[in-house]
Every structure is written in C-alpha cells, then in structure tokens.
Predict the 3D structure of the following.
Amino acid sequence: MSMLFADTLKKLRTEKGFSQRELAERMYVTRTAITKWESGNRLPDAAMIKRLSEVLGVDVNTLLSAVAESDECPGVIMVDDNTVILNGGLSIIEEVIPNASVTGFTKPSEAIDFAKANRVALAFLDIEMGTVSGLDVCRDLLEINPHTNVVYLTAYGNYSLDAWSTGACGFVLKPITPEGVKEQLKKLRYPFFVGGEEQ
C-alpha cells in the first residue's frame, strides 16, 4: 500500500499540534486506530474520513485524494468452486475494475489465507461451495479486515435474507455480468476507487 494517506494524515495532525492520543480522543477512536492509519496498515472508512476532515479542518477531498492514491491498485478476490464460473467472473471483474489486482480461488481456505497476508478491499463470494458456505467465508474475511466490502454471488435468490445478516454489501445473481458488478460498486460500504473515481 502507498504511504501517501499515512503521510498526509501525520502531516495534517502535526500541523494542528495534536498528538496521536489527542486526535484519537477528538475522533472517538482508539490511539491504536490512529497509529494504524499513520503506519499505512489500515485505511479509515468513509465515515471516519469525513470526521477526520472536520477535526483537522481540511477539505474532505484532500483526504479522499490521498486514499485514492493509497488504494490505486485495490485488492479484489473472487471465490467460487466452479472453475468455469470463476474464470468468466474474473474476466468481467478485471474489465469493470481495470486498476484492481484481481485474484480467484476455488478453495475458501486459500482465500482466507490470502486475506490474512494481503489487504482485500472487495470480495465476491459464491454462497454454496461444497461443504463450505460463503456466508461463513464472509464472516472470516470481516474478522480479518472489517473494512472488506463483500458481495455475494449465487444462482438462488432465496439466500438473500441470510446474506444480509452477515455484514455483506450486496448480492449478485449468476451469471455475473459487467452491469451487475457496476451496480454493486455503487453500493459498497467502504471507499473503493475505480480508475481514480470513488465508488
């Protein structure tokens, strides 16, 4: 991840004369959260960026631009145990989000291991994968990084009520299409940049 946002935040905080603890108190977050933002280990979500702009007295676009540069190559994963669907979906995701680093998995366990070692900004998850449920994979991904946007993929609309209870952002019925992906990008919970434009 680029350090641009981390460096921008540290510079703005220092200019205001705030310690990390003082900024944390004004933001109603822990000092650890500020430390992670300033070390480049985490990016704040949209609500936190807006609050940061108010506390630091800067235009929100200053911070959003820094996030865009920091997330210029967002990590996107797709998990589906059907290789034909997976390969087709990966091509569509790469077409719609050309600046993303897109990785596919047929095994949920490999996707979880990947997420532990890499920042995943967006995950497309099949719901039925043999004995493993995409709903459980979603919970695991959000435990690793609560700011991961999760979109479910399924051929069965009757899963929608269960899906919403897991913290996912959206739901796409198969077959996956460019239009379906674009529609979901408008509904993501956390900042996500497609070719420099925030979704």
